[in-house]
Amino acid sequence: MIELKSKTELEKIGESCRIVAAALKMVEEMVRPGIETREIDQRVREFIKKEDATPSFLGYRGYPASTCISINEVIVHGIPGKRRIKDGDLVSVDIGAYKNGFHGDAARTFLVGDVSDEKKRITKVVKESLERGIAAAKPYGRLSDVSAAIQKHAEKHGFSVVRDLVGHGIGRNMHEEPQVPNYGTPGNGPVLQPGMVLAVEPMINAGTFETETLEDGWTIVTADRRVSAHWENTIAITENGVAVLTVN
Ligand code: MF3
Ligand code: CO
């Protein structure tokens, strides 16, 4: 069942989402050559705590950190650690915050220093794909309108859309119904009802859409080890349109 949120519930989700957006803004300044990914994670954890929230990811199914930091061929769920960011890296950072009983979830991809044209293109296209997907979301429209718009834009630019991972409803739980695929044909799936809150999160690859999970049980990489990018916002469907909640 897809839960519809009340106005007061939407305000609470909005607060968690603003914290996530502010944390990502802080991270943008930190993503520089030489920094260890665990330093970024530590700062995010402190920031979320200072905002009287808790990191959604920490302890989720045993996940050991407050962020996912996914570099180059890592699609998502990279675990922060001693690895240092270096010039030329593409770095996707995913953050969730929980406050007043509700979660917010968002991700951005950052480019570090002198990066390849392919990395520049895939980062631009993943962001645009999410924008196209959100633009296709209309109250009383259908969920797959969003999915199809994302896929169309990504594939038009020669990138592939990951199938093994999808976006999701969000609220009292980080993952709620419905699943939000980044591929599909328009006009299908659930009707987008006012009060629905969705984490829309395209993951697109330079090569194959096939994935592999590393031995740590978390890190998901492209099967061909070519580069991948991720962008995520939490959005709310309202009577008048769509509100993007994970913005400053
Ligand atoms: N934002 C991601 C998601 O929507 C990350 C959660 S995975 C976690 O699934 F284990 F790190 F929490
Ligand atoms: Co998510």
Tell me about this structure:
Helices cover 29% and strands 27% of the residues. The protein is of the alpha+beta class and 248 residues long. The chain has one domain (7-240): Creatine Amidinohydrolase (Alpha-Beta Complex), CATH 3.90.230. Helix 1 (7-30) runs antiparallel to helix 2 (37-50) and helix 3 (117-135) packs antiparallel against helix 4 (143-156). The radius of gyration is 17 Å and the shape is globular. 2-amino-4-trifluoromethylsulfanyl-butyric acid binds next to strand 4.
Averaging pLDDT over every residue, what do you get?
A: 98
Number of strands: 15
- Give the topology string: H per helix, E per strand: HHEEEEEHHEEEEEEEEEE
From the alpha-carbon coordinates, what is the Rg to the nearest angstrom? 17 Å
CATH topology: Creatine Amidinohydrolase
Q: Report the major sheet.
A: 5 strands, antiparallel
Put simply, the count of helices is: 4
What would you call the shape?
A: globular
Termini gap:
30 Å
Oligomer: single chain
User: Roughly how much helix do the residues carry, as a percent range?
Assistant: 25-40%
Name the CATH superfamily classification.
Answer: Creatinase/methionine aminopeptidase superfamily
Count of discrete structural domains = 1
Give descriptors for this structure.
15 strands; 27% strand; binds cobalt (II) ion; alpha+beta; binds 2-amino-4-trifluoromethylsulfanyl-butyric acid; globular; 248 residues; Creatine Amidinohydrolase; four-stranded antiparallel sheet
